[in-house]
Design goal:
By secondary structure, this protein is an alpha/beta fold. It has 9 helices and 20 strands.
Length: 342
Amino acid sequence: MLTIHPQFKLNSQSVSSVKDLIVRLKNGFEADVHFIQELFDSSDRIIAHTSGSTGKPKKIKIPKKALLKSAEATGKYFDLPAGTKALHCISSQFIAGKMMWVRALHLGWQLTLIQPNSDPMQDIGGNFDFAAMVPLQAQNSFSELHRIGKVIIGGAALEASWEKKLASLSNAIYQTYGMTETITHIAVKKLGQPAYHCLPQIQIEQDQRGCLVIHVPYLHDAKIITNDLVSITSPHTFIWLGRYDHVINSGGIKLIPEDLETKLQAFLPYPFFLAGIPNEQWGQKLVLLLESEPIEEDFKVLFQKAGLTTFETPKEVYFVSKFIYTSNNKINRIDTINIINK
């Protein structure tokens, strides 16, 4: 069972007990208090919720012993021993925020906790060894991100232009792969590199669809079957290609929208995604959805500049004033597509 590591500190002060910790969090950190209480209660599991990006959010129970193993795997992979100075700037309502607490308490980190916001470095001085951020936080903190030795970015896709920009920094910045079911990340890739590298003990394979299957020994050797299309490059590395459930079959040609979206990112300043909608001629018709009011744009020229082939070119463009998003700010593609289907 989890105990507070003797070297753990919160905002530069030692913590003597769980009660002491909760007292310090009473003012404005309700989500953190709730999780700490759950983490140290008599149950051997915590309750977490999936994001809902590919379906309805689900409630799942995660063994507390598995949380500790996941924390140890992250500490080992990134070489983050006791005394690590870590910034906690993401919401503890989600698994990523919960795991920052587990790592800090279990591994003995010196944790600086702030209210989650879109520009976490603006009012904080000093340097840190480690932090976890969502893409928007990393982008807004670009000029100050050098003050953090190692940064992991997750929770949503990182645009190709921003990946290139962030990769130019001298510190180590990684994009994560994981989900609530795997207790946050099970693999990371350094920005600018194509392949994700698995954390210690994680094993991977592909199913008959070409999708990633993850073996997590500390989750009772759970086998988690994903809908992520991948290319496995070694027993411990893989390249993410896209989502199986997003694949579009248009006139017998299978298109992975995430691959095409990467080509379009530099040319579209609005949130967007590609999808297939039912069509008698094509089976599925490739369309572009833009979160925008109608704009004057020669999309035929834009698609040519992006290097899209004839088969890769959207047949129609739909303007949606507001996409539907999940609770952690990912585009809910299915529900958004239903807007135009109706």
